[in-house]
Design brief:
heterodimer; A: alpha+beta; Phosphatase 2c, domain 1; 18 helices; 16 strands; B: 218 residues; alpha/beta; Rossmann fold; 7-stranded mixed beta sheet; 7 strands; globular
Amino acid sequence: MLQVTKRELAHAIRWALDLHHDPGVTRHAEIWKQLAHSANPQDRQLLNDVSRLLTGIVEEAVRWRLELPLGSGPLSQDRDGLEQLWMAISNWMRGDSTRQACIQQLLDQAVPSAAASPPPQAAVPARTPRPAAPVLDPRPAIPAVPATALPTERVLPIEPVAPPEVPPPAEPPRPVVAGSGWLYRPVPESEPDRHPESGKIAQELGEGRLLVGARARGKKHKHEATNCDDWFEFGQAGAWTVIAVADGAGSRKLSRLGARVSCERAVAFLTGALADVQPAADWPSVEALLGRDVTGRDFIEPGLVMARNCLHQAFEEAYAAVAARAGSLRGSEPHERLLGRPVAVEDLSATLLVALHRALRIGGVRQSLVLACQIGDGAVAAVDRRANIHLLGQADSGEFSGETDFLTSRRLLEAASLQRRTVILAAPLRVLFVMTDGVADDYFPPDPGLARLYADLVLNGVLPHPPEAGPPRSANGATEIDPSDGRLDLEVQVATASGPVTVRLRSAAAYASALHFRPEEVAASADLLRAGSRGSPLLQLPSFEVRLLQWLDAYHVRGSFDDRTLVVLHCGKDG
Amino acid sequence: MSEFVGRRLPVYLVLDVSGSMTGEPIEAVRQGVKALLADLRGDPQALETAYLSVITFSNGAQQVCPLTELTTFTEPQLVASGSTALGEALKLLGQCVDREVRRSTPTQKGDWKPLIFLMTDGQPTDSWEAAADEIKQKRVGNIIACAAGPHAQASVLKRATEIVVELNNLQPDQLKAFFKWVSSSIRTTSQNIAQPVADGTPVNLPPPPPNSGIVIVP
């Protein structure tokens, strides 16, 4: 049992509170350890006193915010200080949705929020209840030094009460700063149904075709410790490739579930249904393939009709799956606590873009057949060998940005609506893109923006350069540019779990500008693309999908901080 | 490359620099703008989206800072003298918005809905009524007007916009609090910017700080 003077005690407590350090750390640590583990009632009382007095300062900041009378001590007079403390508390309260829900539950004890019906008994915390209306005692001044005399016993708010069923949230790791103050914060573990941070996958499809997809959590979500709301899936059914991409509504806390479930179901359904749908593999002409019926409205080729019907069916199936998921969450405590009410299908609102692809021979030439249907924003588009853009859907958007439509708007699933949204294309293609608006907005308008996207992907080694490329030629009058010296590379800062990371990327805009070309001209030139990708920084990464993910995570466009998802079907030599 | 600026949140400060602002008030406004800038520059979302412009008015109206991104924005020199040509200011505001703010077209993503903060400390000295009616009609964005001190009239400002706040006085503390609230509003807007909202939804403003003397006029 250590013999300790009052002064040493005070120093030890100051040390434990991380206030300025008096010399003698070892001694402080020893004393603190003894004090913290002591069963002596006087020691317990001392610690409780210190806690109460400091908490009183925090309470002053909250009282300041609520325009309640304050004490007369120096800390209460420091309005700027109180405001700063309040800002810190306020930021912390808004930290993430789980915490916000806990705070709301706390406040519901004083005044139930409008949306909530009388809270279910299960939600009442097991701890000692505090009075609903705060009792205004005459407040003592907050002393500058810890006093030995205590104010009248009163119940003070401590840390937020977590409902007994759920363990309190783990201490969040320190946010990590990357360029211009963007933080990296992981999604708290207490959040239900956490979405994996990112996804990436690639698949060789045979005959030189390649499928690459990746999904990156946006800067805004990283900064606010919220989930990525995008999802993608793809699959094969015989010669068909199926791609689905979705983006959950930003204002809906569970929208990521809708995005994931709808993609999974759409692809699962289509890979089953399309196995039996086989349009003839050889066609004399595009007109013959796309020949319409006498009314001019529908298609004659049964394989095509069936494929289109499957596509529409997939949307119905996706909706049903989302509704079922929402239904399965009825009565789920963590989800209802998050929303403050039972889960409804609208809470899982997301866009959905689906594309079907297969290769055919038309007039003896191998070409691509694509069917696409889209609800919401984002883009489905194809780029051909001359870098022409074929837009395969229309983004739904309101007059003001940010407005779009979702799968959960049932009226969009009516036959006529889906019909209008379906586009069919038969042509020799370079690539087929399916993407969320996190990428589409950065390459707007799609024509010629998506040609620049294609060029960006090739220049960064995310896609192979066109096989027909010859040795590099110079542009009209411009001297040949060799980008492998890194002159055209841009450095970007990316916020990651392990700290800010510097990534070097190539830009089609910068490369084109240096050559006095427009980006879409570069996109159309196999030679320029090949020359421009030499020595590209991302080539050090081992695979296409890893490069795609890194590129999506890193490329910088001012004001662009949404989740980014892109799936590319690269048609290789023959389109 | 400047073409790919992405969507911007245009913010206009329309400031009364009439003779009655001489001395402490105009100095407090200068400090307020400085603090506003520092605040916004510290917030990554604001930094990437907000663009700032300053229009001043006394005998006439002048755009002393065109719409500029935050990293290159330089604070204007503010000098107080003259009368209070509110009508001129509102007309100029309309012209600047027309000229500088990009609307959505099939080939261009437009800017986000502009935020406009207007502050005056006295009665307008020009014929302002027509200009006020016109700016209200025009729907240039969300206008938050501030009637600062005992001589300004909220009713005048209400003709130009629904959202009017009153400041008790022109003391430095008061003006400082006002600019802090302006900064908070801009940051809140830039954070919520991508949430889909219906057209015409009123702007979401944070509560004014307590005991700041800023009162939202119903």
